[in-house]
Protein backbone atom coordinates (compact mmCIF):
# COMPACT_ATOMS: atom_id res chain seq x y z
CA UNK A 1 0.00 0.00 0.00
CA UNK A 2 1.39 3.41 -0.97
CA UNK A 3 1.83 6.02 1.73
CA UNK A 4 -0.68 8.38 0.08
CA UNK A 5 -3.91 8.48 -1.93
CA UNK A 6 -4.57 11.00 -4.69
CA UNK A 7 -8.25 11.30 -5.54
CA UNK A 8 -8.03 13.68 -8.53
CA UNK A 9 -5.36 15.28 -10.65
CA UNK A 10 -7.09 18.60 -9.95
CA UNK A 11 -6.45 18.26 -6.19
CA UNK A 12 -3.70 20.21 -4.44
CA UNK A 13 -3.67 17.84 -1.44
CA UNK A 14 -3.26 14.10 -0.99
CA UNK A 15 -4.27 11.85 1.93
CA UNK A 16 -1.54 9.90 3.70
CA UNK A 17 -2.29 6.29 4.61
CA UNK A 18 0.09 6.07 7.58
CA UNK A 19 1.52 8.49 10.14
CA UNK A 20 4.59 10.20 8.64
CA UNK A 21 7.53 11.98 10.17
CA UNK A 22 9.26 15.02 8.69
CA UNK A 23 11.38 14.40 5.61
CA UNK A 24 9.36 11.54 4.09
CA UNK A 25 8.83 11.60 0.32
CA UNK A 26 5.16 11.62 -0.69
CA UNK A 27 4.38 11.75 -4.38
CA UNK A 28 6.82 14.47 -5.54
CA UNK A 29 7.12 16.43 -2.27
CA UNK A 30 8.72 15.91 1.13
CA UNK A 31 6.77 16.16 4.36
CA UNK A 32 7.30 19.24 6.52
CA UNK A 33 6.74 18.10 10.12
CA UNK A 34 4.65 15.26 11.51
CA UNK A 35 1.51 14.21 9.63
CA UNK A 36 -1.08 11.96 11.38
CA UNK A 37 -2.48 8.93 9.56
CA UNK A 38 -5.32 9.72 7.07
CA UNK A 39 -4.60 13.47 7.22
CA UNK A 40 -3.74 15.68 4.24
CA UNK A 41 -0.55 17.28 2.94
CA UNK A 42 -0.16 19.96 0.29
CA UNK A 43 1.41 18.87 -2.99
CA UNK A 44 2.04 22.44 -4.20
CA UNK A 45 2.42 25.81 -2.53
CA UNK A 46 -1.02 27.17 -1.60
CA UNK A 47 -1.08 30.89 -0.95
CA UNK A 48 -3.26 32.47 1.73
CA UNK A 49 -6.83 32.79 0.46
CA UNK A 50 -6.44 30.21 -2.30
CA UNK A 51 -8.79 27.25 -2.53
CA UNK A 52 -7.92 23.80 -1.23
CA UNK A 53 -9.23 21.02 -3.45
CA UNK A 54 -9.98 17.36 -2.73
CA UNK A 55 -12.25 15.11 -4.81
CA UNK A 56 -11.69 17.86 -7.43
CA UNK A 57 -13.96 20.05 -5.27
CA UNK A 58 -13.37 22.97 -2.89
CA UNK A 59 -13.06 21.85 0.75
CA UNK A 60 -11.76 25.16 2.20
CA UNK A 61 -9.41 28.12 1.84
CA UNK A 62 -5.84 28.52 3.05
CA UNK A 63 -5.78 30.76 6.14
CA UNK A 64 -2.04 31.23 5.68
CA UNK A 65 0.59 30.30 3.10
CA UNK A 66 0.97 26.50 3.00
CA UNK A 67 4.22 24.92 1.78
CA UNK A 68 4.47 21.76 -0.35
CA UNK A 69 4.59 18.76 1.99
CA UNK A 70 2.99 20.68 4.88
CA UNK A 71 0.18 19.22 6.97
CA UNK A 72 -3.16 20.70 5.84
CA UNK A 73 -5.81 20.80 8.56
CA UNK A 74 -7.82 23.06 10.86
CA UNK A 75 -4.76 25.14 11.82
CA UNK A 76 -4.31 26.48 8.29
CA UNK A 77 -7.71 26.04 6.59
CA UNK A 78 -10.72 28.37 6.69
CA UNK A 79 -14.32 27.40 6.03
CA UNK A 80 -16.74 29.48 3.93
CA UNK A 81 -20.46 28.94 3.36
CA UNK A 82 -21.12 27.47 -0.07
CA UNK A 83 -22.58 29.53 -2.89
CA UNK A 84 -23.39 27.33 -5.87
CA UNK A 85 -25.05 27.98 -9.19
CA UNK A 86 -27.16 24.86 -9.11
CA UNK A 87 -27.73 22.72 -12.15
CA UNK A 88 -30.61 20.26 -12.34
CA UNK A 89 -30.83 16.89 -14.10
CA UNK A 90 -27.58 17.52 -16.00
CA UNK A 91 -25.72 14.42 -14.76
CA UNK A 92 -28.26 11.63 -15.10
CA UNK A 93 -26.94 8.09 -15.43
CA UNK A 94 -29.29 5.52 -16.87
CA UNK A 95 -30.04 2.55 -14.64
CA UNK A 96 -29.71 -0.92 -16.12
CA UNK A 97 -32.81 -2.23 -14.38
CA UNK A 98 -32.93 -5.98 -13.74
CA UNK A 99 -36.16 -7.51 -15.17
CA UNK A 100 -38.68 -8.49 -12.49
CA UNK A 101 -38.45 -12.14 -13.47
CA UNK A 102 -34.69 -12.16 -12.83
CA UNK A 103 -34.48 -10.19 -9.61
CA UNK A 104 -32.75 -11.36 -6.45
CA UNK A 105 -34.85 -12.38 -3.49
CA UNK A 106 -34.67 -12.35 0.29
CA UNK A 107 -36.77 -14.07 2.95
CA UNK A 108 -39.13 -11.47 4.35
CA UNK A 109 -42.45 -11.05 6.17
CA UNK A 110 -45.34 -10.03 3.89
CA UNK A 111 -47.82 -7.71 5.60
CA UNK A 112 -51.49 -7.23 4.88
CA UNK A 113 -50.90 -3.77 3.38
CA UNK A 114 -48.46 -5.17 0.81
CA UNK A 115 -45.28 -4.02 2.55
CA UNK A 116 -42.50 -6.45 3.48
CA UNK A 117 -40.65 -6.62 6.78
CA UNK A 118 -37.16 -7.90 7.51
CA UNK A 119 -37.98 -8.38 11.22
CA UNK A 120 -41.08 -9.25 13.25
CA UNK A 121 -41.36 -7.10 16.39
CA UNK A 122 -44.13 -5.85 18.62
CA UNK A 123 -43.49 -2.19 19.44
CA UNK A 124 -44.58 -0.15 22.47
CA UNK A 125 -44.79 3.48 21.31
CA UNK A 126 -45.04 6.46 23.67
CA UNK A 127 -46.73 9.74 22.87
CA UNK A 128 -44.86 11.60 25.62
CA UNK A 129 -41.95 11.17 28.04
CA UNK A 130 -44.47 10.81 30.90
CA UNK A 131 -45.45 7.36 29.59
CA UNK A 132 -41.88 6.16 29.04
CA UNK A 133 -41.64 4.18 32.27
CA UNK A 134 -44.92 2.42 31.59
CA UNK A 135 -43.72 1.41 28.13
CA UNK A 136 -40.41 0.10 29.48
CA UNK A 137 -42.22 -1.91 32.17
CA UNK A 138 -44.55 -3.45 29.59
CA UNK A 139 -41.68 -4.46 27.31
CA UNK A 140 -39.54 -5.80 30.18
CA UNK A 141 -42.26 -8.33 31.02
CA UNK A 142 -41.35 -10.22 27.86
CA UNK A 143 -37.89 -11.60 28.52
CA UNK A 144 -36.10 -14.53 26.86
CA UNK A 145 -38.06 -17.19 28.76
CA UNK A 146 -41.43 -15.73 27.75
CA UNK A 147 -40.36 -15.22 24.12
CA UNK A 148 -39.24 -18.85 23.62
CA UNK A 149 -42.94 -19.60 23.16
CA UNK A 150 -42.97 -17.34 20.08
CA UNK A 151 -39.94 -18.25 17.92
CA UNK A 152 -41.13 -16.16 14.96
CA UNK A 153 -41.28 -12.93 17.01
CA UNK A 154 -38.01 -11.00 17.33
CA UNK A 155 -39.01 -9.26 20.55
CA UNK A 156 -41.13 -6.65 22.31
CA UNK A 157 -39.46 -3.22 22.17
CA UNK A 158 -40.30 0.04 23.94
CA UNK A 159 -39.70 3.19 21.87
CA UNK A 160 -39.54 6.02 24.39
CA UNK A 161 -38.43 9.64 23.99
CA UNK A 162 -38.00 12.89 25.91
CA UNK A 163 -40.60 15.07 24.23
CA UNK A 164 -44.34 15.12 23.43
CA UNK A 165 -45.30 18.00 25.73
CA UNK A 166 -44.07 21.50 26.49
CA UNK A 167 -44.16 22.08 22.74
CA UNK A 168 -46.28 23.98 20.25
CA UNK A 169 -49.38 22.09 19.17
CA UNK A 170 -48.69 22.85 15.54
CA UNK A 171 -45.71 23.59 13.33
CA UNK A 172 -42.51 21.81 12.32
CA UNK A 173 -41.71 20.15 15.65
CA UNK A 174 -45.19 18.82 16.31
CA UNK A 175 -45.62 17.57 12.75
CA UNK A 176 -42.22 15.84 12.79
CA UNK A 177 -42.98 13.97 16.03
CA UNK A 178 -46.35 12.80 14.73
CA UNK A 179 -44.74 11.60 11.47
CA UNK A 180 -42.21 9.62 13.52
CA UNK A 181 -44.88 7.91 15.63
CA UNK A 182 -47.09 7.21 12.62
CA UNK A 183 -44.08 5.90 10.68
CA UNK A 184 -43.01 3.52 13.45
CA UNK A 185 -46.58 2.30 13.82
CA UNK A 186 -46.67 1.52 10.10
CA UNK A 187 -43.12 0.21 9.64
CA UNK A 188 -43.36 -3.29 8.13
CA UNK A 189 -40.88 -4.65 10.70
CA UNK A 190 -43.66 -4.37 13.29
CA UNK A 191 -46.29 -7.09 13.55
CA UNK A 192 -48.15 -5.21 16.27
CA UNK A 193 -48.15 -1.88 18.13
CA UNK A 194 -49.30 -0.69 21.55
CA UNK A 195 -49.38 3.10 21.97
CA UNK A 196 -49.15 4.49 25.51
CA UNK A 197 -49.79 8.10 26.52
CA UNK A 198 -50.38 10.02 29.73
CA UNK A 199 -53.62 11.75 28.73
CA UNK A 200 -53.03 15.49 29.18
CA UNK A 201 -49.97 15.89 26.93
CA UNK A 202 -49.77 18.19 23.92
CA UNK A 203 -49.14 15.25 21.59
CA UNK A 204 -52.53 13.58 21.95
CA UNK A 205 -52.81 9.99 20.69
CA UNK A 206 -56.36 10.64 19.46
CA UNK A 207 -55.09 13.48 17.26
CA UNK A 208 -52.49 11.15 15.75
CA UNK A 209 -55.04 8.44 15.06
CA UNK A 210 -57.40 10.93 13.44
CA UNK A 211 -54.73 12.71 11.41
CA UNK A 212 -53.33 9.51 9.91
CA UNK A 213 -56.45 7.39 9.77
CA UNK A 214 -55.16 4.78 12.21
CA UNK A 215 -57.76 2.33 13.51
CA UNK A 216 -57.46 0.19 16.61
CA UNK A 217 -57.67 -3.56 16.05
CA UNK A 218 -56.18 -6.88 17.20
CA UNK A 219 -52.61 -5.78 16.34
CA UNK A 220 -52.91 -2.06 17.07
CA UNK A 221 -53.95 -0.81 20.51
CA UNK A 222 -53.80 2.58 22.27
CA UNK A 223 -54.40 3.76 25.84
CA UNK A 224 -53.35 6.46 28.30
CA UNK A 225 -52.40 6.31 31.96
CA UNK A 226 -55.00 8.78 33.24
CA UNK A 227 -57.92 6.85 31.70
CA UNK A 228 -56.49 3.45 32.67
CA UNK A 229 -56.46 4.24 36.40
CA UNK A 230 -52.75 4.90 36.85
CA UNK A 231 -49.34 3.44 36.13
CA UNK A 232 -49.78 -0.04 37.60
CA UNK A 233 -53.09 -0.65 35.80
CA UNK A 234 -51.62 0.70 32.56
CA UNK A 235 -48.67 -1.69 32.76
CA UNK A 236 -50.98 -4.59 33.56
CA UNK A 237 -53.29 -3.69 30.66
CA UNK A 238 -50.38 -3.22 28.29
CA UNK A 239 -48.91 -6.61 29.14
CA UNK A 240 -52.25 -8.23 28.47
CA UNK A 241 -52.54 -6.40 25.12
CA UNK A 242 -49.13 -7.70 24.05
CA UNK A 243 -49.97 -11.23 25.22
CA UNK A 244 -53.01 -11.29 22.95
CA UNK A 245 -50.88 -10.05 20.01
CA UNK A 246 -48.02 -12.52 20.37
CA UNK A 247 -49.79 -15.66 19.09
CA UNK A 248 -51.01 -13.74 16.04
CA UNK A 249 -47.57 -12.24 15.38
CA UNK A 250 -46.01 -15.68 15.75
CA UNK A 251 -48.09 -16.93 12.83
CA UNK A 252 -45.99 -14.75 10.48
CA UNK A 253 -43.59 -16.79 8.36
CA UNK A 254 -40.70 -15.67 6.18
CA UNK A 255 -41.22 -16.17 2.45
CA UNK A 256 -39.28 -15.27 -0.71
CA UNK A 257 -39.69 -11.58 -1.57
CA UNK A 258 -38.04 -9.53 -4.35
CA UNK A 259 -35.24 -7.13 -3.44
CA UNK A 260 -37.48 -4.35 -4.76
CA UNK A 261 -39.24 -4.55 -1.37
CA UNK A 262 -36.13 -3.41 0.49
CA UNK A 263 -35.83 0.22 1.62
CA UNK A 264 -32.32 0.79 2.97
CA UNK A 265 -31.20 3.71 5.13
CA UNK A 266 -27.76 5.07 4.18
CA UNK A 267 -26.04 6.41 7.29
CA UNK A 268 -22.55 7.31 8.49
CA UNK A 269 -21.11 8.25 11.88
CA UNK A 270 -17.74 8.59 13.53
CA UNK A 271 -16.29 9.31 10.08
CA UNK A 272 -12.64 9.68 9.16
CA UNK A 273 -10.80 10.76 6.03
CA UNK A 274 -11.09 7.24 4.58
CA UNK A 275 -14.90 7.27 4.81
CA UNK A 276 -15.15 9.01 1.44
CA UNK A 277 -12.46 6.79 -0.08
CA UNK A 278 -13.44 3.25 0.98
CA UNK A 279 -16.68 2.56 2.88
CA UNK A 280 -18.94 5.28 1.47
CA UNK A 281 -18.14 4.65 -2.22
CA UNK A 282 -18.42 0.89 -1.63
CA UNK A 283 -21.84 1.40 -0.02
CA UNK A 284 -22.67 3.63 -2.99
CA UNK A 285 -21.96 0.71 -5.34
CA UNK A 286 -24.21 -1.53 -3.21
CA UNK A 287 -26.84 1.21 -3.47
CA UNK A 288 -26.55 1.13 -7.28
CA UNK A 289 -27.03 -2.67 -7.24
CA UNK A 290 -30.10 -2.27 -5.01
CA UNK A 291 -31.62 0.39 -7.27
CA UNK A 292 -31.06 -1.81 -10.33
CA UNK A 293 -33.13 -4.47 -8.55
CA UNK A 294 -35.99 -2.00 -8.08
CA UNK A 295 -35.17 -1.29 -4.43
CA UNK A 296 -35.01 2.00 -2.57
CA UNK A 297 -32.11 3.71 -0.81
CA UNK A 298 -32.59 6.69 1.52
CA UNK A 299 -29.72 9.11 2.11
CA UNK A 300 -30.14 11.61 4.98
CA UNK A 301 -28.19 14.00 7.26
CA UNK A 302 -28.71 17.28 5.40
CA UNK A 303 -25.84 19.12 7.18
CA UNK A 304 -23.54 16.32 5.97
CA UNK A 305 -24.23 16.89 2.29
CA UNK A 306 -23.56 20.63 2.68
CA UNK A 307 -20.99 21.52 0.04
CA UNK A 308 -21.85 18.45 -2.02
CA UNK A 309 -25.52 19.20 -2.67
CA UNK A 310 -24.67 20.67 -6.08
CA UNK A 311 -23.51 17.21 -7.15
CA UNK A 312 -26.85 15.74 -6.07
CA UNK A 313 -28.97 18.40 -7.81
CA UNK A 314 -27.24 17.47 -11.06
CA UNK A 315 -28.47 13.92 -10.45
CA UNK A 316 -32.03 15.02 -9.62
CA UNK A 317 -34.56 13.39 -11.93
CA UNK A 318 -36.07 16.81 -12.61
CA UNK A 319 -35.72 20.44 -11.49
CA UNK A 320 -38.60 20.22 -9.01
CA UNK A 321 -36.86 17.43 -7.12
CA UNK A 322 -33.53 19.28 -7.19
CA UNK A 323 -35.13 22.49 -5.92
CA UNK A 324 -36.55 20.61 -2.93
CA UNK A 325 -32.99 19.73 -1.94
CA UNK A 326 -31.83 23.33 -2.39
CA UNK A 327 -34.66 24.58 -0.17
CA UNK A 328 -33.56 22.15 2.56
CA UNK A 329 -30.03 23.56 2.38
CA UNK A 330 -31.36 27.11 2.71
CA UNK A 331 -33.52 26.09 5.67
CA UNK A 332 -30.47 24.66 7.42
CA UNK A 333 -28.39 27.79 6.77
CA UNK A 334 -31.16 29.86 8.37
CA UNK A 335 -31.67 27.34 11.20
CA UNK A 336 -28.00 27.37 12.22
CA UNK A 337 -27.73 31.16 11.84
CA UNK A 338 -30.72 31.95 14.07
CA UNK A 339 -29.35 29.54 16.67
CA UNK A 340 -25.96 31.29 16.47
CA UNK A 341 -24.25 28.25 15.04
CA UNK A 342 -22.29 27.41 11.93
CA UNK A 343 -22.73 24.71 9.32
CA UNK A 344 -19.04 23.96 10.00
CA UNK A 345 -19.86 22.98 13.59
CA UNK A 346 -19.94 19.53 12.02
CA UNK A 347 -17.39 17.75 11.64
CA UNK A 348 -17.06 16.66 15.25
CA UNK A 349 -13.80 16.53 17.23
CA UNK A 350 -13.54 12.83 16.43
CA UNK A 351 -14.01 13.50 12.71
CA UNK A 352 -11.24 16.10 12.83
CA UNK A 353 -8.92 13.73 14.65
CA UNK A 354 -9.58 11.29 11.81
CA UNK A 355 -8.44 13.86 9.23
CA UNK A 356 -11.64 15.65 8.20
CA UNK A 357 -11.04 19.40 8.25
CA UNK A 358 -14.30 21.09 7.17
CA UNK A 359 -17.92 20.11 6.62
CA UNK A 360 -17.30 20.54 2.89
CA UNK A 361 -14.71 17.76 2.94
CA UNK A 362 -16.89 15.54 5.10
CA UNK A 363 -19.95 16.09 2.89
CA UNK A 364 -18.17 15.20 -0.34
CA UNK A 365 -17.27 11.85 1.17
CA UNK A 366 -20.65 11.32 2.83
CA UNK A 367 -22.60 11.91 -0.38
CA UNK A 368 -20.75 8.98 -1.98
CA UNK A 369 -23.04 6.62 -0.03
CA UNK A 370 -25.76 7.50 -2.55
CA UNK A 371 -24.00 5.87 -5.49
CA UNK A 372 -24.45 7.19 -9.02
CA UNK A 373 -28.11 6.72 -9.99
CA UNK A 374 -30.70 9.52 -10.37
CA UNK A 375 -32.14 11.24 -7.29
CA UNK A 376 -35.82 10.34 -7.56
CA UNK A 377 -37.31 11.99 -4.46
CA UNK A 378 -36.64 14.45 -1.62
CA UNK A 379 -38.64 14.13 1.59
CA UNK A 380 -39.22 15.87 4.90
CA UNK A 381 -37.99 14.27 8.12
CA UNK A 382 -39.90 11.01 8.77
CA UNK A 383 -42.14 11.59 5.73
CA UNK A 384 -43.15 8.33 3.97
CA UNK A 385 -40.76 7.63 1.10
CA UNK A 386 -42.89 6.65 -1.89
CA UNK A 387 -40.40 6.86 -4.79
CA UNK A 388 -38.29 3.90 -5.82
CA UNK A 389 -34.56 4.20 -6.43
CA UNK A 390 -32.17 6.65 -4.77
CA UNK A 391 -33.90 9.21 -2.53
CA UNK A 392 -33.10 11.78 0.18
CA UNK A 393 -34.73 12.52 3.54
CA UNK A 394 -34.06 15.71 5.54
CA UNK A 395 -32.53 15.14 8.98
CA UNK A 396 -29.82 16.36 11.35
CA UNK A 397 -26.37 14.82 11.16
CA UNK A 398 -26.92 13.34 14.64
CA UNK A 399 -27.07 9.63 13.85
CA UNK A 400 -29.80 8.39 16.26
CA UNK A 401 -32.18 11.20 15.26
CA UNK A 402 -31.43 10.69 11.57
CA UNK A 403 -31.93 6.92 11.63
CA UNK A 404 -35.14 7.35 13.65
CA UNK A 405 -36.47 9.49 10.79
CA UNK A 406 -35.36 7.00 8.14
CA UNK A 407 -37.07 4.09 9.90
CA UNK A 408 -40.21 6.22 10.27
CA UNK A 409 -40.00 6.93 6.52
CA UNK A 410 -40.26 3.20 5.88
CA UNK A 411 -36.69 1.84 5.91
CA UNK A 412 -36.67 -1.85 6.84
CA UNK A 413 -32.85 -2.09 6.87
CA UNK A 414 -30.07 0.30 7.97
CA UNK A 415 -26.46 0.62 6.79
CA UNK A 416 -23.90 2.57 8.80
CA UNK A 417 -20.34 3.40 7.72
CA UNK A 418 -17.78 4.47 10.33
CA UNK A 419 -14.09 5.25 10.50
CA UNK A 420 -13.61 6.06 14.15
CA UNK A 421 -15.94 3.29 15.31
CA UNK A 422 -19.52 3.65 16.52
CA UNK A 423 -21.49 1.53 18.98
CA UNK A 424 -24.79 2.09 17.21
CA UNK A 425 -27.66 -0.23 16.42
CA UNK A 426 -31.34 0.20 15.64
CA UNK A 427 -34.73 -1.45 16.02
CA UNK A 428 -37.01 -2.51 14.51
CA UNK A 429 -34.76 -2.27 11.44
CA UNK A 430 -31.40 -4.06 11.83
CA UNK A 431 -28.18 -2.10 11.29
CA UNK A 432 -25.18 -3.27 9.23
CA UNK A 433 -21.87 -1.59 10.22
CA UNK A 434 -19.13 -0.98 7.63
CA UNK A 435 -15.60 -0.06 8.75
CA UNK A 436 -13.54 2.35 6.64
CA UNK A 437 -10.11 1.07 7.73
CA UNK A 438 -8.61 -2.29 8.62
CA UNK A 439 -6.98 -1.18 11.86
CA UNK A 440 -10.28 -0.08 13.40
CA UNK A 441 -12.11 -3.11 11.99
CA UNK A 442 -9.71 -5.43 13.82
CA UNK A 443 -9.89 -3.40 17.02
CA UNK A 444 -13.72 -3.33 17.01
CA UNK A 445 -14.22 -6.73 15.36
CA UNK A 446 -17.27 -7.52 17.52
CA UNK A 447 -19.04 -4.36 16.31
CA UNK A 448 -18.16 -4.23 12.59
CA UNK A 449 -19.88 -6.38 9.94
CA UNK A 450 -17.70 -5.51 6.93
CA UNK A 451 -14.15 -4.21 6.48
CA UNK A 452 -14.08 -1.73 3.60
CA UNK A 453 -10.48 -0.95 4.61
CA UNK A 454 -9.58 -4.12 2.70
CA UNK A 455 -9.91 -1.99 -0.43
CA UNK A 456 -6.54 -0.51 0.58
CA UNK A 457 -4.84 -3.28 2.58
CA UNK A 458 -5.89 -6.13 0.28
CA UNK A 459 -6.34 -4.19 -2.98
CA UNK A 460 -10.00 -5.16 -3.30
CA UNK A 461 -11.93 -3.23 -5.92
CA UNK A 462 -14.87 -0.93 -5.30
CA UNK A 463 -17.10 -3.38 -7.15
CA UNK A 464 -15.92 -6.37 -5.07
CA UNK A 465 -16.52 -4.62 -1.75
CA UNK A 466 -19.82 -3.11 -2.91
CA UNK A 467 -21.07 -6.54 -4.01
CA UNK A 468 -20.07 -7.97 -0.62
CA UNK A 469 -22.11 -5.27 1.15
CA UNK A 470 -25.09 -5.89 -1.13
CA UNK A 471 -25.05 -9.64 -0.43
CA UNK A 472 -24.82 -9.07 3.32
CA UNK A 473 -27.86 -6.79 3.11
CA UNK A 474 -29.83 -9.66 1.59
CA UNK A 475 -28.58 -12.07 4.27
CA UNK A 476 -29.47 -9.72 7.14
CA UNK A 477 -32.83 -8.93 5.55
CA UNK A 478 -33.46 -12.69 5.52
CA UNK A 479 -32.84 -13.02 9.25
CA UNK A 480 -29.08 -13.24 9.77
CA UNK A 481 -28.19 -11.10 12.80
CA UNK A 482 -25.93 -8.11 12.28
CA UNK A 483 -23.26 -7.63 14.94
CA UNK A 484 -24.98 -4.65 16.56
CA UNK A 485 -28.21 -6.65 16.63
CA UNK A 486 -26.49 -9.64 18.24
CA UNK A 487 -25.19 -7.35 20.99
CA UNK A 488 -28.68 -6.07 21.77
CA UNK A 489 -28.29 -2.52 20.48
CA UNK A 490 -31.36 -0.59 19.38
CA UNK A 491 -33.56 -0.27 22.47
CA UNK A 492 -32.25 3.19 23.41
CA UNK A 493 -31.48 4.66 19.97
CA UNK A 494 -35.01 5.89 19.22
CA UNK A 495 -34.46 9.68 19.17
CA UNK A 496 -37.08 11.81 17.39
CA UNK A 497 -35.64 15.11 16.15
CA UNK A 498 -36.82 17.94 18.42
CA UNK A 499 -37.44 21.09 16.39
CA UNK A 500 -38.56 24.32 18.00
CA UNK A 501 -38.86 25.69 21.50
CA UNK A 502 -39.47 23.67 24.65
CA UNK A 503 -42.02 25.66 26.63
What does it look like?
This protein is an alpha/beta fold and 503 residues long. The chain folds into three domains: 75 residues, Archaeosine Trna-guanine Transglycosylase, Chain: A, domain 4; 131 residues, Ribose 5-phosphate Isomerase B, Chain: A; 200 residues, no CATH class. The strands form six sheets. The protein has a seven-stranded parallel beta sheet with strand order 19-20-18-17-21-22-23, sandwiched between helices. A four-stranded antiparallel beta sheet has the order 1-2-5-8, with no helix packed on it. Strands 13-12-14-15 form a four-stranded parallel beta sheet, sandwiched between helices. A hairpin with a 2-residue loop joins strand 3 and strand 4. Helix 1 packs across helix 5, helix 3 crosses helix 11 and helix 6 packs across helix 14. The radius of gyration is 24 Å and the shape is globular. The model has no long low-confidence stretch (mean pLDDT 96).
Topology:
Elements (H helix, E strand, L loop, with lengths): L3 E2 L7 E4 L8 E2 L2 E2 L9 E3 L8 E4 L2 E6 L8 E2 L4 E2 L26 E6 L5 E2 L3 E6 L5 H9 L3 H4 L7 E5 L12 H15 L3 E8 L7 H8 L7 E5 L6 H20 L4 E4 L4 E6 L10 H14 L3 E4 L9 H6 L4 H20 L10 H5 L5 H8 L8 E5 L9 E5 L5 H10 L4 E6 L12 E5 L2 H6 L6 E2 L2 H4 L4 H16 L5 H4 L17
Parallel strand pairs: 12-13, 12-14, 14-15, 17-18, 17-21, 18-20, 19-20, 21-22, 22-23
Antiparallel strand pairs: 1-2, 2-5, 3-4, 5-8, 6-7, 7-9, 10-11, 10-16
Helix pairs in contact: 1-5, 3-11, 6-14
Amino acid sequence: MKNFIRLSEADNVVTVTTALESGVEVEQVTTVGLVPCTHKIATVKIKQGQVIRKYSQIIGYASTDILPGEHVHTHNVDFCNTSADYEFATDLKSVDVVPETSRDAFMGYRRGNGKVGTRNYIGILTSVNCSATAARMIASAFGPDEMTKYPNVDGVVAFVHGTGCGMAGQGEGFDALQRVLWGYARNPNHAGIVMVGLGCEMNQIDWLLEAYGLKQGPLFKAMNIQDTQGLAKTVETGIEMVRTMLPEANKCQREPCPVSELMVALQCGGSDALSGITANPALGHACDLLVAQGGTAVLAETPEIYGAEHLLTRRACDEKTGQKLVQLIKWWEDYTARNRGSMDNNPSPGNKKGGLTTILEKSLGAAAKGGTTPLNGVYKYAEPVTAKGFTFMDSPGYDPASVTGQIASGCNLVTFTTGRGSAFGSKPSPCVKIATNTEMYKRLIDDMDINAGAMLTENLSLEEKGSEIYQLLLDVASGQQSKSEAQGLGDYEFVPWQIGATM
